[in-house]
Amino acid sequence: ANKNITFRVVTDSKTEDIPFSKNKLLQITGNLISNAIKFTPLNGQVTVQLSIVISRTKKLSIKVTDTGSGMDQDTIHQILYGEQESTEGTSGEKGYGFGLMLVKHLIIKLNGSLNIESEPNKGTTFSIELPIV
User: Residue 70, class by beta-carbon neighbours within 10 Å (0-12 exposed, 13-18 middle, 19+ buried)?
Assistant: First the structure.
């Protein structure tokens, strides 16, 4: 509210009855949403999309997209390989530096995948796919 960020959650009706650990899902999405808000400037947007992807297997797709400060490829690499330290948000918000590490750990533990698309000053999208068993 302090940053007047538009926050949207878009769900697919198929996601309503999926058998998934609520705690793990909340930890993953909560950390990603928190980071998206942290790095989105005043009057920006954060969107969360939950859907089911069916290919050879059934997967829960989570996308958290923001209109924030974005990242360069080096920073993305550091996040994916656990080398990134916490940085200040767009309004000076502090972090502890373990949110994305926890997200990565949970995704690996759940046999999922993580992809990050971002450009400096153009926002970021974290895309996660988790198998549904």
Answer: middle
Instruction: Compute the residue count for the chain.
Output: 133
Average pLDDT (65-77) is 89
**Beta partners for residue 59, in sequence order:** 53, 131
- The 10s digit of each residue's pLDDT in 27-56 is 999 999 998 998 898 999 999 999 988 888
pTM score, whole prediction: 0.87
Angle among Cα 67, 46, 27 to the nearest 5 degrees reads 125
> For the chain, how big is the Rg over CA atoms in Å?
15
Tokens of residue 46, six digits: 């954060």
- Give the DSSP H/E element, type plus range, for residue 63: strand 58-66
Structure token digits, residue 20: 């998934």
Tokens in use for 125? Answer: 């999208």
Contact 48, 12 (CB under 8 A): no
Q: Are 130 and 60 in contact (CB under 8 A)?
A: yes
Q: What was the pLDDT predicted at 118?
A: 93
